[in-house]
Batch of 3 targets.
Target 1
Amino acid sequence: MSPPHANHAAHERAFRRLAFPEATAADWGDWRWQLRHRVRTAAGVARVLELSARERRALATPAAWRMPLSITPYLLSLLDQEAPDGPLRRTVLPDVREAQVRKGEYHDPLGEEAHQVAPGLIRSYPHKVLLLATADCASFCRYCTRSRAAGKGTGRASRAAPFPRAALEWLRRTPEIHDVLISGGDPLVWSDARLDRLLKAVRAIPHVDLIRIGTKTPAVLPQRITPGLVRILRSVRPLWLSLHFSHPAELTPRAARACSRLLEAGLPLMNQTVLLRGINDNRETMQRLNEGLLRLGVKPYYLHQGDMAAGTAHLRSTVAKGRAILQALCGQVSGYAIPHFMIDPPGGGGKHHLFPGGGRAGA
Ligand code: SF4
């Protein structure tokens, strides 16, 4: 584990007492308390973090934000360990450059709306679908591909949003589909009961072999991985989890415990990371991230070249840099620590490999 986390528990406790003095240790460990106390305003951030002039300027102009602000108290405690403008801060704090939409950027960079076959159900491949269960996430990442939808119908509205009946109906009558990825948003912000209902409904479809869940909760809300949730997930195995750690600072002892619970329940864990300019696009950070993930029992699976989402140029690194980083890691780290480098070209049509091999073979 990286040195900043050597005294993680002590730091968390000190941060809680200072920033959320009314919260007990039990509150802090409760994922519902964490969701209810997400920081969503500039004033809420400024109250807790020492900010740079750049961070202050961006927070003062919410009209320029491309998506809402939402940060769990837990994640805020990790940001507090960083200097202003630190890498993890840049993943969740707005930037004035979000307002600039460059040529070649799109609000729907993967053309998902054109591939929607039922409300919230995207079919970009013949055999698999993406089920967008919710637009809410525990924390919003500024580089999100689906920022066009992020935060719409969040909180209570999300939990009361219609259950995806039409999507399930479509799945039942489409036997070519064997693989269902449930994502969003982050489906693990749903209540246990609602998630259980959805997972059981998908598992009951005879032609669906593979169910996957895409979630960032182990990185930004590890408290969500409760024994009750794990029982639900375990009951519909085989189920794979696609996690989303972006930086080694997210690999805390709490995150490690969350991953350990999932692994002990027989749930395989893969990680997907976006290559982010000035955040993780250097060899040393990528090595610490991927080797740290392996120590947690998580396979670094995909490294994604940033999508052409509107207003994300300042966070998008280059294909050449991604290739050079992975090339430099070859022979220096376990092969398991080297993810596939992927790109999703604008407009849909599926992923392409960028590494290994240097060519662009179909994924
Ligand atoms: S967790 Fe995923 S869906 Fe949610 S904001 Fe981050 S990248 Fe987007």
Target 2
Amino acid sequence: MSEHPERLYPMNRPAGHVPPIIRYSARFDHAPGHLAVLFVGMAGADDARAEQALGDFLAAAAAAPSAPAYLDRAAFVDAEGRRTVMAALYWPDRDAFGRWVAVPDIAAWRAGQRALAEDLAQWWEPVSTVPERAETIAFAEYRRGLSACPFSRLEEMGETGYWGAARDRIPASGWDRLDGAAVRLAPLAALPAGRGQRLAIRPPTGLTVIRSGVSWAACGAEQRESYERNVRPKLDAGMDYLRENPAETGCPALRQVVLTDAAGQPLEEAYSLGLFLSLHHLETWAKHHPTHLAIYHRAMAERRKYQEALELRTYNEIYVLDGDALDFEYVNCPPSTGLIPYFEARILEAAA
Ligand code: HEM
């Protein structure tokens, strides 16, 4: 990996800080250039049809050359009250992703051939940035997303358990404030139809994507009860707040999803996929909103209490996009979807 510029901004880590428990970050032995993750979702009037389409897409995705190295599936109910099924797909680098996207079968999916034929809404959000503008935090025995990829290796790290740790884990924060191109989120005066269209939106520099996950699958009765009583209601309230206050929080989209198996059945784990105008917007919510503060302090107290016996598992991965981001695309989507309400879209030709 190339040499980093000299550090301009100090670490937030207090002198002598000892992490409350051991946490890990993903490292890469190859030089990815840009990392590449694709979040793709489908919804329609008929849940079974969307489920089938996603399954067929993932089968095509896995069969194509340069197939994703890792994927997982999830589901949630969108702003229109429809069940959306989705997947997160990971590649070792953007070149591999680019080769996969160029496979004709995949290009047809991307252009919305199936979505238009079956009246499904399909959003396609590739998240691609340099590893210097990304971070992960994971437990060694519970790996999801980027930390679970076969090309990732987990390394113990000390940037955990204090405010500003996430920023410290992003190498570029040493020489870049990681500000966003936009400070405020302003809804567009006129929205595109969305339905029947294929829209492309280039995410602004600095747009910050977080996948923040939790699993209660390994919790015994006591810690499960604590999760259900002390954490889950606050998490739900915090996510409602972000969804209901996009302008105040700088959060154009927040999807709170439950992981599912291949048959669409829910697992005992979930994640929130949030888009923020900048890392600062995300940090502001995390550090100041009472819902996350309550979760954070509770989680810290439980870490100290249970130590190695802690059973709740959490992880996150954060990507701060650079000026070389990939377009987010929306086929046949209601204009409430993703970035559509806030950023000018180009209308692309949809699949025949
Ligand atoms: C079950 C749900 C959650 C729990 C138990 C939880 C708990 C925590 C804990 C313990 C930390 C400190 C991590 C460390 O550095 O060791 C943390 C940090 C953070 N969390 Fe959460 N969290 C949850 C959900 C979320 C969600 C849904 C988001 C965003 C959408 C979020 C955003 C953040 C951010 C940005 C930080 C980094 C703060 C910093 O280092 O300055 N969290 N959370």
Target 3
Amino acid sequence: MLHVARKKEFCKVLGPGTRSVIWFHGCLRQCPGCIAGTMNELAEYETFIPQQLADWVKNNIGIEGITLSGGEPFQQPRDELAAFLMLVKQNVTDLSVLCYTGYRYEELNKQESAIPVLQHIDVLIDGEYRENEDFGQRWRGSDNQQFHFLTKRYKNQENEWNHTLERQIEIELDMNGKLLISGVPSKDFINKLTMELQRRDVNVDFS
Ligand code: SF4
């Protein structure tokens, strides 16, 4: 089963165009300053078989692609992750796939179990978050994280992607009064907002 902490049908701040985003649950790495800290081992999650998750994507009409985040996508059962991505691309052939991971591409590329997953990814954004290298890069948390263009899909935009400094976030309030934040907010923004909201008794979920 795939463990999902959160999913969002339409998001414009985690990759090109409008994308469906899946935040997988859990990451064992515990990098200092990680903004996905709320998706740790204790957080709530839903479970899906690959077909269910692929059906959810299929219903999100008009998206350019999907973005996988977390938590750590590659700490999910990799055979199921690969099956999910295969179904997504079978259902709608021109959807693109972006994937965040704390692993390095070179590391994953040597692991047999990761290859069937990598084969379905257009752009891998690799490396753990490092607070001291957070300079406001678009779609990246810190400068050590690199875009790996594994297919031709966005290859011609490589220069632009590597040099754009622009952080955008989306903020929503769910039915339970919980504030959901999507994107890659700056650390300073997170600290100020968290302090202010906690003072007012509002729960925040940064993804
Ligand atoms: S930065 Fe990435 S690899 Fe590190 S704890 Fe957070 S989700 Fe895991």
